[in-house]
Every structure is written in C-alpha cells, then in structure tokens.
Design goal:
By secondary structure, the chain is of the alpha/beta class. The protein is 29% helix and 23% strand. It contains 2 helices and 6 strands; from the N terminus they run βαββαβββ. The longest helix is centred in the first third of the chain and has 23 residues. It is globular and about 45 Å long.
Length: 144
C-alpha cells in the first residue's frame, strides 16, 4: 500500500546496494565517516546511484572474533556489497577499482588491507518494504 501522495513504484526507487563493513573497532571508530564517503562515492560513480541513497552498516569486531593474516595489517577491512543482479562485468570491475582508490585516498588504508565481495542476487530474492523486488519498477538502472 502506497502512502498518500506516492505511487507504489515511487516508494521503491530509493533501493540501492546494501553495504556491510567489517573491521577492528579502532579502525571503524577512526575511519567510519571517511569509509562511508569513499564507499558511497565509488557506488555512485561506478553504478550510477543518486547521492541521497546510502545503505551501510559498520560491524566493529574485537580480538579473537576477527582472524586474518598478519600481512593485512591492523586496518584490515572487509566490505561486502549485496545488490540486484544485472550489472556488467565492466561496472563491477570499475566499482572494485574505485573502492580501492577512494578508500586509500580518503582513509589511508592500503589496498593490501582491504577485501571486497560483491554479491548479486535476482530481484525475486529481495523483499523491500513489504513487497517482492521483482514486482517493482526501480527508479534507477541495474544494467550499467
């Protein structure tokens, strides 16, 4: 059911990639704002998202709950991005490259300390605001 003044399709044009960032608590506390900006900037540029659409979660991990190779350093950061399927390999490569460049430039975290996973799923696998995403008309393109 749409709210007064909005169509069913208008309510869903704001859905974008869901981003989860895992890092040590000190890294997140120090770089949360810069990481958020770098990640969102990369998504806007590579996937043509509008600036006001930002969906991010930061998970701070301590001690023995965050195991990784020593060569990744104390700033080791994992970025997982879930999104609708349909982007070209070129767009996904551009997103990953843009993430590495922006994160290093805006936080000083070296690419060696960052790992990125993109997960694409069919729209039918997403539930958004009470509806199946396959039944929605989006206000943005996924076939970039």
């Amino acid at each position: 059911m749409a709210l007064e003044g909005e169509s069913r399709d208008d309510r869903f044009e704001d859905q974008m990639a869901q981003v989860v960032v895992y890092a040590r608590r000190a890294t997140i506390n120090r770089h949360r704002g810069a990481l958020s900006g770098a990640i969102h900037g990369a998504i806007m540029r590579a996937l043509a998202y509008p600036p006001e659409k930002r969906f991010q979660r930061f998970i701070a991990v301590d001690g023995p709950d965050f195991v990784y190779p020593e060569d990744r350093g104390d700033a080791y950061t994992i970025i997982e991005i879930s999104m609708f399927e349909g982007r070209s390999d070129e767009a996904k490569r551009a997103l990953i490259a843009e993430l590495f460049v922006r994160i290093e430039a805006e936080t000083g975290i070296a690419p060696q300390s960052v790992e990125i996973t993109l997960t694409e799923t069919p729209k039918v696998n997403w539930g958004i605001r009470g509806a199946n995403a396959a039944d929605l008309t989006l206000g943005y393109r996924v076939d970039v």
